[in-house]
């Protein structure tokens, strides 16, 4: 009698272990098939609604055990609406992470806003990508309630110029201008916070616009990190002795158009952005500067340079005196 009982117990043990292994396999890797699954999460959907949709597509290994697993572990992820691509090799945790990440929505369009772009260039890029009409974006920029750290002078072309951070974003087509601005403003704040943390500094709200204005000039003048520090020093050195900045990029912004070569009459345009006309900094930023330019604006190199000139269409040469600058210019 003992032998049959032992055999029965062994069989029960084997069945139990097999069941546990099957349960673990099904719940850790719940999907079957080899091709990725497209999951549409509609507005208001719960996680159980998503599982129901997948069950209807017959891609879940065992819907009942999967549901038991979700309930037993009290899983209630904060899923977001959109269209998501799920690998059938995904674990339950990986599956949930995808559904919680709006940047992975397949309906989103990736758009890169380069460093140094103006609001008008940003608007053109958004329109080219089919995300938002340029005029709608410009209108939103004009009507957007700007943060307190941005001055509201009526002479400014765009209040938000310089404060929409250049980066790669993912936007749904036909998104509102306010949503685009909100995302770019959020990224701007993140970068400023990162700079403060990395350098153990506190950028006061009353100083932030001056930093970004200076950074925008640096951004449009040079590209290398090393030269940005030098241009930053030139700007400070000129301001400290009451010398006009005379930066060509500010003239182009004041003109509102690109020109390969500026004429003398262009330098005379009466604009608060034109640093040949106005003393000191322009009235506001002339583009969206990147992180390197912002840091260069805050931490300039210590030099006596007052002049610089392009020496090979990319790099620049810096000078302490006008005579040195003129001699070099005449030799080119």
TrEMBL record:
Coiled coil: none annotated. InterPro entries: MLTG-like. The record marks 221 as: Important for catalytic activity. It is found in: Cell membrane. It is a single-pass membrane protein. Keywords: Cell membrane, Cell wall biogenesis/degradation, Lyase, Membrane, Transmembrane, Transmembrane helix. Its EC number is 4.2.2.29. It catalyses: a peptidoglycan chain = a peptidoglycan chain with N-acetyl-1,6-anhydromuramyl-[peptide] at the reducing end + a peptidoglycan chain with N-acetylglucosamine at the non-reducing end. Belongs to the transglycosylase MltG family. PANTHER family: ENDOLYTIC MUREIN TRANSGLYCOSYLASE (PTHR30518). Functions as a peptidoglycan terminase that cleaves nascent peptidoglycan strands endolytically to terminate their elongation. This is Endolytic murein transglycosylase. The gene is mltG.
